[in-house]
Amino acid sequence: MPFTTKRFSLDFTSGAKVMAVINLTPDSFYEGSLFDLQSAVEYAKQACEKGAAILDLGAQSTAPDSTAISDKEETGRLIEPLRKIRKECSALISVDTFSVEVAKAALENGADIINDVSGKASPEMAALVAEHGAGWIIMHTGGLSSAEEREQDADITDEINAFFDHAVKVADKHGINRSHLCFDPGIGFGKSRADDLDIIANFSQLNSNGCTMLAALSRKRVTKLCGDALTGTVISNAACIAGGANIIRVHDIEQGIAAAKMAKLLTEVRNG
Fold this sequence. Notes:
Blueprint: E1 3-4, E2 9-10, E3 17-23, H1 37-50, E4 54-58, H2 71-88, E5 92-97, H3 100-108, E6 113-116, H4 123-132, E7 135-139, H5 156-173, E8 181-184, H6 193-201, E9 212-215, H7 229-242, E10 247-250, H8 253-270
Parallel strand pairs: 3-4, 3-10, 4-5, 5-6, 6-7, 7-8, 8-9, 9-10
Antiparallel strand pairs: 1-2
Helix pairs in contact: 1-2, 2-3, 3-4, 7-8
C-alpha cells in the first residue's frame, strides 16, 4: 500500500524511501543536522537532488537533554523555513512535533505529513489530519521520553503492536484511510538499548495493520553500540528494511539511499 497525502503518494514497489532530517533547533543531539534558515533551504534542495522522498522538519528537539519550548516558539522556528522549502522543493514535507497547534500551523503552511512524536494518537491530532487529508506518522513511546526507559516486563513487540492497534481504531473513528497512516516503533523513546536491538532485529514482527512502517534510528544511542554511529545506522536501517520498513529517517542521505538499494537487491535475491 502506498503512503498517501493530499498532494501525492509514495509507492514502495521500487524499495524503501529515505526521509531526510532537517533540525531547526539549537540543541539537536547531532551537530551535522543543525540548520539556520538559509542552510536549511540549501540542505533541503540538496537532499531532494540526492533522492530523499521526504524532508522532515523539526523545531522542537526530542533528544534526551533537550529543553521543552512553547508552541509559539516552536511555530516561530518552523514556519519561515517551511514556506521557503515548500517553494523550492517538490518532495513531501513532514513536520516532527508533539503539538496539535504546531501541526495545524504546519499543515496550513505547506506541510504534507505530521510526524507525531507525542506517543498518544490523540483524537485531536486525528481530527486535524483528517481535515487536511494529511499523512500521519504515529510513534510509540509508551508515554515516556527519549531520556526514560520503561520498567515493564512485557514483551516490547507486543506493547508496540497493542499501541498500533489502538492508533488504527482512532484513525478509523475519524475516517482516516490506512494509506494515510505510518507507524514508527519509537526506537530510543522510553526503551532500553536491549529493547531497541529487539525492535531492529525483529522488525518483521511488528504489526503494520496494512500501513506504512518507518524506522527512525539514525545516529541514536543504539547505533553507537558497535563503536561507530554511522556504521551502526546503516546496518540497522538495512535490517529494518529487510524486516518490512518502508521509510528510513536519516541524517546521512547518501548512506541511507545506499542501504535502501542494497536491502532491495538482497530482498529480490531472497525472494527469487
